[in-house]
Design goal:
2 copies of one chain form a homodimer. By secondary structure, chain A is α+β, with helices and mostly antiparallel strands. Chain A has 3 domains: about 280 residues, Butyryl-CoA Dehydrogenase, subunit A, domain 2, CATH 2.40.110; about 150 residues, Butyryl-CoA Dehydrogenase, subunit A, domain 3, CATH 1.20.140; about 140 residues, no CATH class. Helices cover about 55% and strands about 10% of the residues of chain A. Chain A has 20 helices and 11 strands. In chain A, strands 3, 4, 5, 6, 7, 10 and 11 form a 7-stranded mixed sheet that branches. A two-stranded antiparallel ribbon of chain A has the order 1-2. In chain A, strand 4 and strand 5 form a beta hairpin. In chain A, helix 6 packs across helix 10, helix 6 runs antiparallel to helix 11 and helix 12 crosses helix 15. Chain A is globular and about 80 Å long. The model of chain A has no long low-confidence stretch (mean pLDDT about 95). Chains A and B meet through helix 10, helix 11, helix 12, helix 13 and helix 14 of A and helix 10, helix 11, helix 12, helix 13 and helix 14 of B. Chains A, B: It comes from Oleiphilus messinensis. Chains A, B: Keywords: FAD, Flavoprotein, Oxidoreductase. Chains A, B: One of its GO terms (molecular function) is flavin adenine dinucleotide binding.
């Protein structure tokens, strides 16, 4: 397994230099403490923890997996101790309010923390990660008493939380939820039903586990309009947070999965468990959606984390493994063969990984800064605009970054040749671990429908037009830091981006018009549309990076190689990856008939 | 795990109707027995064996894996018994000469057998599959005594064989092979060295295992010109084939792998083992290459097998799983939701799988018929032309079909949503099992260099031009069976194919010219060139199928749905998959600078 090394140079370049986090944080009270020095100290310490504590547990966690012992989940060796250290360091509450025990730092900084932790050990990171979902739900929809009791414990990390949505008969189609909530005289509810695919549904990290459960009241309307949200703790606490009676929340079984084996995926049985309504009756789904956009950045993160980790592993192997001679002449004549990094196709794979890892990082941070406005924005209007902007970006972040992250993980394995298939090297684990990211939190297909059907067509393209306008204006602006031959290269990049941005607008209109005629045109174009959009958004991130690199080089820097590398990677991206838009464009223009004309009964004989 | 059902209708359509196997077999003595009735009987019986015996062992084989017990490999439960039945049925020698105990049927028929067996259970199929490699080597390069002793046992299946090429320090770069062969007075050799990644290196199926080992004589020239080939049996036999003394061939360890867990991948130690030279001294690599083309059809097969099996699993799930309503109105109003096959994006995934599975099948059979000429061709010229044609096709068959097969396997998993990630359903196993196919027998990158560097540039494009000419002439030929509106559709398909065939020629010339200037242009274009070529070759296969379907419909048939389905799938392929050539075209035109300009030291900081 590659020993993870947090790429702090790249992280700081993107966060500070490229996106101007320092200036950005001046817009928020929460940003006051987040000075560059503070950020630096946090990242350094987080990197140390992740590299020393979490990275070594990544492969052993996969080997050992989780076990169900006497009805309770036993996590792999060392997981619990690492969590105790994490809690002692105050990491769980980094971006949560001081009044509930958090450190009150901006949401975006929490994303950088998550990146470091999750790249080192995605399975481990899912336990505190899921807890963040429960924390956000309670923070946004809980009453003061619920916040004081549950949010404080969750922010400290002494309790953890889960999200219980999926049932055997439904994942995406939550209107089919059957779990029942019957009101009791004391204002509580009796919850009965089975939930599946519950990450961190049980474990040995904390004294208590707080489940956020979607369930249906007895008189609830059918479908999605009859679902409510409940807090259901594993053990019933008193008002001071002392853990009491067992609440009949039990693990039916542990799923045996392709990967993320250190993460417990539970079937959870609620057998007359006591629950507490959170948010308004029958508005459970809306409550869920309020933080869905932020949560989905976290899932998109898995893609760029995988790209980064696999890139680190592949790069070191490509520098060491000796095989064949360069076609353009020996490069290491003193050795038995050349290191494989001399071969153009190996470089193609490494550069693809690098472009997705670093481009994805930029897109994640860019989105995270928008999330700051969503959470900490001063006015309702600012928050709503940020929500729309983020709403447009998140399906792209989630689906495009996980699809490309999976590709990158596969390329990393490919660099190792046959050795990539052997567990020992850890490269195949990255592939297995990452594969889930295209499935959970809404599959790629569902994200694509969300983007095209909901965020663009329903919204009449408002957020899309705002983004596309920003991109167009950026392209128009003449870069003052770029001169001479470099200027010509940068201008070429920007003119390509201008052109494809226009095609994007045209295409969006075409799909819009087609969908008025036939609703199946939406689903027929959606995944290609999402991928197409993703390549453009990432091109924007790479143009930004190239331009900033030229600026830094013009200023005169002590490490010009770093910035040259950014420019070369941007050029690679524009030359080799952005053209994938051509195929997606053609595929979606082919129309729905190519998919719908075959009778369901005639797919096979 | 999907219960495999051999798609005999499709297999027979492609083999008999599309490619005219009956007429083809009249060209060979070996084809005399291969009448349509005989073929039908063989396929039916093989399907029964695979469906009833092998398919049920696919998932349990993955769960149990292989074990090393007292130095010997124990295969999963039921594997050995299935092999005994297979041997009793005379399956191993189906396409091998009657004089060595085979059934003397054409090589191509063996490919259909392999397809059925390997789709049902790839891991199991590797044991007899690797043996075929050893059989072919001995048949082509062994002396009469070696054939009488070893080939007979291998053809019966009472012994099995392996190919021992790879060593820890080298896989692709076999010039680095270190295993030593020291001549003994009795004409034998003493073999010492370690080989890795030896599939079927040990097992409990047979009394003896015959290893074909690449090793170096004491005075051998350095590099690839100093490698010889040896027969090294696990137990030394007498001349009557009675197994005797242990030959110090032992299993160092079993690899722990991502998939194909039922297949034993061994580290093999040869510790002063007795070996027998096969073929001329120092010509071991050339001897290996003589049957490499045929062997690689077998590996390409893994891709289309995976596409087929995953398609079968995904299709049945898509018909049963109820989720959401069709955007164009309820399709199953009596049910709680519509089956997901109504959703365009699910159909996109299924059709992609179908297009790769059935298109891949056509390409495999098309290549297998060429292999008949290579093996059974009447004159040296016929055999050499067939070798050239096949040499051109095999890197495409091997790499393109495994890359697209892996995509198809991932799509099948994707159709299942989160359930696809759970082992129980068997869909993730197909992904894990198939992943190796892009790595072994030469990675995709190596196949691409073989295609572009060796088969096209070194050969000055002779085989390429012959194929492209065949394709061009096919497109020009007016289809007499297609009339009216259909005729227009078929002509459109053929004119697209004509156009891209011309682009292919132009592009090949461009790459040729570029490579004269800079050898790194070859490796820079190679994988994109291979994938681009693959999409065109598969388009040819789909055009052929559509035309044959129109012909059948014009004749009047009792099952028009089958042929309509072929035409719809061909249209889907041309509209949605063939356009991927656009991205590959652009990427390879970007040139080597985009890959080579970044200094090796500056990939990461």
């Amino acid at each position: 397994m590659p020993q993870y090394k947090a790429p702090l140079n790249d992280m700081k370049f993107i966060f500070n230099d490229l996106l101007g986090a320092e200036q950005h944080y001046k817009n928020f009270a929460e940003g006051e403490e987040a000075t560059p020095d503070m950020i630096d100290a946090i990242l350094t310490e987080c990197a140390r923890f992740a590299e020393e504590r979490l990275s070594p547990l990544n492969q052993t966690g996969d080997e050992q997996g989780c076990e169900l012992v006497d009805g309770n989940v036993k996590t792999p060796e060392g997981f619990k101790e690492a969590y105790q250290e994490y809690v002692a360091g105050g990491w769980q509450g980094l971006s949560h309010p001081i009044e509930y025990g958090g450190q009150g730092l901006p949401v975006s900084l929490g994303v950088l923390k998550s990146e470091i932790i999750s790249t080192a050990n995605w399975s481990w990171g899912m336990y505190p990660g899921l807890s963040l979902g429960a924390m956000n739900t309670i923070y946004l929809h809980g009453d003061e008493q619920q916040k004081a009791l549950y949010l404080t414990k969750l922010t400290e990390g002494t309790w953890s939380g889960t999200m219980c949505l999926t049932e055997p008969q439904c994942g995406t189609d939550l209107g089919q939820v059957k779990t029942k909530a019957v009101p009791n005289d004391d204002g509580s509810y009796t919850i009965s039903g089975t939930k599946i695919f519950i990450s961190a549904g049980d474990h040995d990290f904390t004294d208590n586990i707080v489940h956020i459960v979607l369930a249906r009241l007895p008189d609830a309307p059918k479908g999605t309009r009859g679902i409510s949200l409940f807090i259901v703790p594993k053990f019933l606490p008193d008002n001071d947070g002392n853990v009491g009676e067992f609440n009949n929340v039990s693990v039916g079984s542990l799923e045996v999965k392709m990967g993320i084996k250190g993460s417990a995926t539970c079937v959870m049985n609620f057998d007359g468990s006591k629950g507490y309504l959170i948010g308004p009756e029958n508005k459970g789904l809306q409550c869920m959606f309020t933080f869905m956009n932020t949560a989905r950045i976290g899932t998109g993160l898995q893609g760029s984390c995988a790209a980064e980790l696999s890139f680190q592993g592949a790069l070191s192997y490509a520098r060491e493994r000796l095989s064949m001679r360069s076609l353009s002449g020996k490069k290491a004549p003193d050795k038995v063969a050349d290191p494989i990094i001399v071969h153009p196709d190996v470089r193609r794979m490494l550069l693809t990984q690098k472009a997705f890892a670093e481009g994805g990082r930029a897109l994640i941070y860019y989105s995270a800064l928008k999330a700051d406005y969503l959470v900490h924005g001063a006015t309702e209007e600012i928050r709503e605009n940020a929500d729309d902007d983020l709403g447009f970006l998140t399906p792209i972040v989630k689906a495009f970054l996980t699809e490309t992250g999976y590709e990158a993980a596969n390329l990393g394995m490919q660099v190792y040749g046959g050795h990539g298939y052997i567990k020992e090297w850890g490269m195949e684990q990255i592939v297995r671990d990452t594969r889930i990211s295209m499935l959970y939190e809404g599959t790629t297909g569902i994200q694509a429908l969300d983007l095209l059907g909901r965020k663009i067509l329903l919204d009449k393209g408002t957020a899309f037009r705002r983004f596309s306008k920003e991109l167009g204006q950026y392209c128009k602006g003449q870069s003052k830091f770029v001169s001479g031959k470099q200027r010509k290269k940068m201008k070429k990049m920007l003119s390509e981006l201008t052109w494809i941005n226009r095609q994007w607008s045209y295409l969006t209109l075409r799909v819009f018009v087609n969908s008025m005629r036939n609703r199946d045109e939406v689903g027929s174009a959606s995944v290609d549309y999402l991928m197409y959009s993703g390549y453009i958004v990432l091109a924007y991130m790479w143009a930004l990076q190239a331009e900033k690199a030229y600026e830094k080089l013009a200023e005169g820097v002590s490490n010009p190689e770093f910035y040259e590398s950014k420019i070369r990677t941007a050029e690679f991206y524009f030359a080799r990856l952005l053209p994938r838009t051509k195929s997606h464009y053609a595929a979606m223009m082919a129309g729905a008939d190519t998919l719908m004309s075959l009778d369901e009964a005639h797919f096979a004989f």
